[in-house]
Amino acid sequence: MGINKFDVVLEPGQRAYVSGQDVVGRVVVWADSVTSCRGHGDNLPAGEYGFPFQFKLPPKIPRSFEGTYGHIRYVIEAKAEIPWGTDQLSSVFFNVECKYDLSEHRTSSDSLMFHKEQSVCFCCCEQGPVIISLCAEKTDYIPGEYVLLTGEVTNRAGWHIESAEITLHETITYKINEATKIKREILQRVRRPGILTGETDIWLSVPIHIPDSAVCLQYCSIMTALYAVKITFSMGFCSTASVKQNITIGTVPVGKVSMTVEGAPASPTVPIPSAPPLYSTLDTPSHEMQPILHQPTSSPDLSKAEEN
Fold first, then answer.
1. Distance between CA 75 and CA 306 in Å, rounded?
2. 71, 174 in Cβ contact below 8 A?
3. What is the dihedral of CA 10, 11, 12, 14, to 10 degrees?
4. 166 has pLDDT over 50
5. Calpha distance 147→231 (Å, rounded)
């Protein structure tokens, strides 16, 4: 006897929100007899009641996140205190996507530069350098975009480059009091052909995809997510040349956006509750920069020939 239904209901059946958005709902109560409820004043007659609530999410809160060593969850809890009886409890979880506009980030106008001249060693003997001169148009991306690398790599070492590899690295750091845990993962790999000694490899919009699983953990004080693109050239005998640069992940894009590779379908939407889109997908095609899939072959290093 008393309250036999006590639920928190979000309206209109919404379970995903963006920071700064209003959360609207009601607490549904069904009493099958007259019930005394503390804070309500008079007794609650038998019947069904709805107690509305509404509040605004702060504009700078971290997004929902489920990690290896920690999580960020949002929950609304309701409690009916019943004098001389058992209190009624109800709760509902909901997802939050933070709105992090990359156009406001300090590096939004910067290009992603990979410039390095690295000498390599074979059997303790230093050989000539591998000269890396690559760049992408920007340093800030949203999940689903492609980093498009353009430039050239010259092999002046006395040994062939066997292979090149582009990798996207994720480092999530969890801080709890004095303890720190770090989880590192390689999210993507893209392989390129080797380069003969004395030749130059031309890169034209070579793509590496930022997966939907990449997370923006801005505004969180106990967890951070860092992302980096690393390019490695392997020459055998444990000899490599590499260069690495950090990128920033946000939720509102900046600059030209490339969400698909020419000739391939866009990534399917992940079928889980998520926040509404933070930008218009209808505007994307007019800003797309498509990678060039048919890359030119390596060319001789003319500067080296002139030296001879």
1. 69
2. no
3. -30
4. yes
5. 12
